[in-house]
C-alpha cells in the first residue's frame, strides 16, 4: 500500500523524531521553584472522556502538563510528534501508522505502549464514555497493535483530519491501569498520564497542584511544580500578578494591558485567536429566515469600530467565517457598516416603521431576543449593548437577556421547540486547528432540526452544497482539492449570513519575571508545559 508521510513545515514527522528532544522542546536545563497560574476558569475534571477536561479552557490547560498525546501542536499549530516518533497516513486517508517512543511510562510506572494506545483509542471511540468532541472521534473505526511500539489507527471513511484529532486535547493518553483502579467515574479526580507533571493534590474548582515527574521521557520539566489557582475576577488576577502572588494569569482585559506593560516585572503575551465571535441567528424565526433581514443586521453594526475601540486594537473584524490563522482560511468578504443600505434592505423585505420607530411587517414588530453571557467571551455584554443600540438605529428592537456564563451553553443547545433566543452570542474554538472541523461543527446540516443540534449548528443553518463541500474538504485525497472545497464553503456561508459577524479577539495573558517559556496558543489556551522558573 502506498503511503504518504505528513510533513511539519518542510520536514517530515519522521525527520523531526530523529532530532534531539531539546531541539523540539524548550524546557529549562533544570527545575527550580513552583509556578503559580491564576486561571480565569476553574479546573473541575481531568479526563479526556466524560465531558473532556471541564471547565473550559482551564481543564485543558492543566491536561497539557499531565498528559502526553500521540501528536502535538507547536506554537504555530503545526502538527509535530509527541509520544509518536513518526506517523504515516495511508494514501486513501483511512489509516495512520504510529511508531511510538520506546520505554515511556505513565506516572504510575505502567508502560505507555501500543496496547495502552489501543485502549485509549477504543475508549474515546465509545460514545457512552466519550460524549463530547464526537466529530473528531466518530470517523475512527478501530486500532490495531502491530508490536509494542507500533499501532495502526483505522477510519471508516477517508479522514484527512485524523492527525488533528490525535493532537487535540481530547487525544490525551491516560493510564489504563489507573482507569481500572479508579473506575470510569473516579479517574477524572485522580488523573494519571505520561506528561512532564503529575498530580500532587486536587481540590476541584479551587486549586490543582502538580509536581515534576522524575520519570518523564523527555527533557526535565522547567519547574519543580505548577499550581493552578482559580481566580474568577479580572481585577483580582491583575492584582495577584502585580503583587507577585501568582506568576501567570490569563484573560487580561485589554483595557488594562497598558497598565501591565508599564510594569518592569511583568511581560504581556498575546496571540491572535482562532475563535470568531458573532451572533448566531435562529433561522427558524420567520424574520431571520429572510436573507435580506440577515444581511441588514450585518450592515447595521459597526464591527470594525468595535474591534478598534472596544478592544483597543486587540481584535479584528472578520473576512470569513474562519479566523485569519485557521487552517484553510480564505478571505471571502468584508464587514461593511452602512445603516442606510440596511434600512433599504429591510424595506425591500416588507418592513415599515411604526409610530415608535420600530419596524413591523403584517402587524408583527421586528423585535429580537438577544442572548449574551456575562464574562464568557471578551467584552460580551458591552458588545451586545453596542449591537442592540446599532440595531435600534435601523428600526430593530433587540432585547438583551444576560445569562450567567456557567449556564449559557445549555440555553444555546436546545431543541427547536425550546429555543428562547433570536440572536445568541457564540464563539467556536477549533482546538484541533482545522478550518474544516470548525465549519462542519457550526454549519453542517443537523440530522434533525427539531431536536438538539448535532454539534454547534445552533441556528439550524442548512445548505446542501455546503454539506457536500465539507465532505470533500474532509476526505479528498489531495490537499489542494480539500482546501478548494473549504474555500468555496466559506464563500457560501458568508453569502448566506447565518451569523451577525463580530470580531476575532487576540488571546492575552501576562507572565511575571523570571518565569519564561509560557506561550499563548491561538486556541485560547495559556500553555505552561515548557515554562521554567529560576
UniProtKB/TrEMBL annotation:
Keyword Signal included in the entry's annotation: yes
Residues spanning the signal sequence: 1-28
SUPFAM superfamilies, A to Z: Periplasmic binding protein-like II
Domain annotation Solute-binding protein family: ranges: 78-446
Origin: domain of life: Bacteria
UniProt cross-references to Gene3D superfamilies, sorted A to Z: Dipeptide-binding Protein, Domain 1 (3.90.76.10), Dipeptide-binding Protein, Domain 3 (3.10.105.10), Periplasmic binding protein-like II (3.40.190.10)
InterPro entries: Peptide/Ni-bd, SBP_5, SBP_5_dom
Database matches in PANTHER family: PERIPLASMIC BINDING COMPONENT OF ABC TRANSPORTER
Protein family according to the UniProt entry: Belongs to the bacterial solute-binding protein 5 family.
Protein name, as recorded: ABC transporter substrate-binding protein
Lineage, opening ranks: Bacteria, Pseudomonadati, Pseudomonadota, Alphaproteobacteria, Hyphomicrobiales
Amino acid at each position: 500500500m502506498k503511503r504518504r508521510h505528513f510533513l511539519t513545515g518542510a520536514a517530515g514527522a519522521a525527520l523531526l523524531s530523529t532530532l534531539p528532544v531539546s531541539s523540539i522542546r524548550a524546557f529549562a536545563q533544570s527545575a527550580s521553584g513552583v509556578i503559580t497560574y491564576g486561571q480565569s476558569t476553574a479546573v473541575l475534571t481531568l479526563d479526556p472522556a466524560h465531558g473532556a477536561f471541564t471547565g473550559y479552557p482551564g481543564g485543558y490547560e492543566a491536561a497539557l502538563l499531565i498528559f502526553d498525546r500521540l501528536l502535538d501542536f507547536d506554537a504555530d499549530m503545526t502538527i509535530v510528534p509527541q509520544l509518536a516518533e513518526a506517523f504515516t497516513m495511508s494514501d486513501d486517508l483511512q489509516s495512520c501508522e504510529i511508531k511510538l517512543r520506546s520505554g515511556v511510562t505513565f506516572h504510575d510506572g505502567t508502560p505507555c505502549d501500543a496496547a495502552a494506545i489501543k485502549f485509549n483509542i477504543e475508549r474515546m471511540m465509545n460514545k457512552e464514555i466519550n460524549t463530547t468532541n464526537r466529530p473528531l472521534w466518530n470517523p475512527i473505526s478501530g486500532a490495531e497493535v502491530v508490536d509494542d511500539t507500533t499501532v495502526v489507527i483505522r477510519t471508516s471513511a477517508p479522514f484527512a483530519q485524523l492527525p488533528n484529532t490525535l493532537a487535540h486535547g481530547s487525544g490525551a493518553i491516560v493510564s489504563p491501569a489507573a482507569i481500572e483502579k479508579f473506575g470510569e467515574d473516579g479517574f477524572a479526580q485522580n488523573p494519571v498520564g505520561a506528561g512532564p507533571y503529575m498530580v500532587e493534590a486536587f481540590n476541584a474548582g479551587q486549586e490543582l497542584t502538580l509536581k515534576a515527574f522524575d520519570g518523564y521521557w523527555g527533557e526535565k520539566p522547567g519547574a519543580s511544580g505548577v499550581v493552578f489557582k482559580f481566580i474568577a475576577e479580572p481585577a483580582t488576577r491583575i492584582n495577584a500578578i502585580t503583587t507577585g502572588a501568582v506568576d501567570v494569569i490569563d484573560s487580561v482585559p485589554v483595557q488594562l494591558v497598558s497598565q501591565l506593560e508599564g510594569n518592569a516585572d511583568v511581560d504581556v503575551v498575546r496571540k491572535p485567536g482562532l475563535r470568531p465571535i458573532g451572533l448566531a441567528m435562529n433561522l427558524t424565526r420567520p424574520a431571520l429566515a429572510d436573507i435580506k433581514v440577515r444581511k441588514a443586521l450585518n450592515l447595521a453594526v459597526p464591527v470594525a469600530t468595535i474591534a478598534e475601540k472596544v478592544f483597543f486594537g486587540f481584535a479584528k473584524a472578520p473576512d470569513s467565517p474562519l479566523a485569519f490563522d485557521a487552517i484553510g482560511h480564505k478571505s471571502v468578504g468584508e464587514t461593511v457598516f452602512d445603516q442606510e443600505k440596511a434600512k433599504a434592505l429591510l424595506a425591500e423585505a416588507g418592513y415599515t416603521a411604526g409610530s415608535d420607530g420600530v419596524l413591523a411587517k403584517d402587524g408583527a414588530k421586528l423585535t429580537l431576543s438577544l442572548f449574551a453571557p456575562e464574562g464568557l467571551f471578551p467584552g460580551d455584554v458591552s458588545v451586545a449593548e453596542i449591537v442592540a443600540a446599532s440595531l435600534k438605529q435601523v428600526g430593530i428592537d433587540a432585547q438583551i437577556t444576560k445569562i450567567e456564563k456557567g449556564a449559557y451553553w445549555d440555553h444555546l443547545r436546545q431543541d427547536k421547540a425550546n429555543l428562547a433566543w433570536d440572536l445568541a452570542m457564540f464563539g467556536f474554538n477549533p482546538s484541533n486547528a482545522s478550518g474544516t472541523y470548525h465549519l462542519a461543527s457550526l454549519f453542517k446540516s443537523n440530522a434533525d432540526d427539531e431536536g438538539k443540534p448535532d454539534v454547534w449548528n445552533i441556528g439550524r443553518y442548512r445548505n446542501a452544497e455546503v454539506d457536500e463541500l465539507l465532505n470533500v474538504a474532509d476526505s479528498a485525497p489531495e490537499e489542494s482539492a480539500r482546501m478548494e472545497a473549504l474555500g468555496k464553503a466559506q464563500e457560501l456561508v458568508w453569502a448566506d449570513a447565518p451569523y451577525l459577524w463580530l470580531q476575532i479577539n487576540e488571546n492575552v495573558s501576562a507572565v511575571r519575571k523570571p518565569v519564561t517559556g509560557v506561550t499563548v496558543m491561538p486556541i485560547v489556551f495559556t500553555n505552561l508545559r515548557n515554562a521554567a522558573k529560576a
